[in-house]
Amino acid sequence: MQQLLDAQAKGVLLNSRAAYDLISEWSQFQDATQSIFPKEQLRDLYYKVEQVLSSFNDKTWDAADPTAASKVDGLFGNFGVTWARRFRGYTQQQLNTLPRVTTETGTNIEGPVTEEIHGLNLMNLYLAQFKRGYAYTSVYLLRDRTDEDGNQSFGFYRADYSPRKAAIYLHNLMTILADNGTLAKPGHLDFAIANQPETVHELLLQHSEGAFQLIVWDERLRGQHRVTVQLGVTPASVRIYDPTIGIEPVRTPTNVSSFELALSDHPIVIAISSSGQ
User: CA 162, CA 141: separation in Å to the nearest integer?
Assistant: First the structure.
């Protein structure tokens, strides 16, 4: 299984987040009381914790990496070299075009991995895998198992069939993207994300009637990036969706060729239509 967060990583993450929150509160207390404690040392510790937290950014993007840089047991770890004895396999050039699927991946809800993080993680996972060339991705598990210890919190659904946030978020995302038609020849959309941060990714899709759907997502554990999406032309309509909120647009900017997005830990979908679509 491509386990996206192993037990050791979860422990470090839990401790780091607790330390981060404590340092933040203490820093605010110092500012309020003008304490004489050495703030320089506090800032150094804060910076070190921030560095640890940043190492947990981009988890699903890294897991889908087809190169030797991947930090998980991925494409290179199985086919660039053999899994057990590390015999040489495909070259990187061959791996770049090798048809690929992920047969089993996911993470359970435990410790710092809350139901919210679980749901956001799985949306990002599907997008990262597709963007990086995986034709199919199978997530463990649709519904929690009741016949096997240790598998009671992996599912999109609980054992009683009630949906977790992962199920709701993915349903919203698929509803926003849904299209029953086919497109004979994909079109082209000129767009750019100015000064695109390392953890921000994009995927351009097109509906059968011609409208584009630009998906932009961030994989930050904490904080936000504010980015500007620039279009080559001014479209007839722009509708912005957030699948963590619902299936209706959250913004509908008019007569614009650029707009700002606040990104953190999940995808935003921008539907872009020209006249007549």
Answer: 14
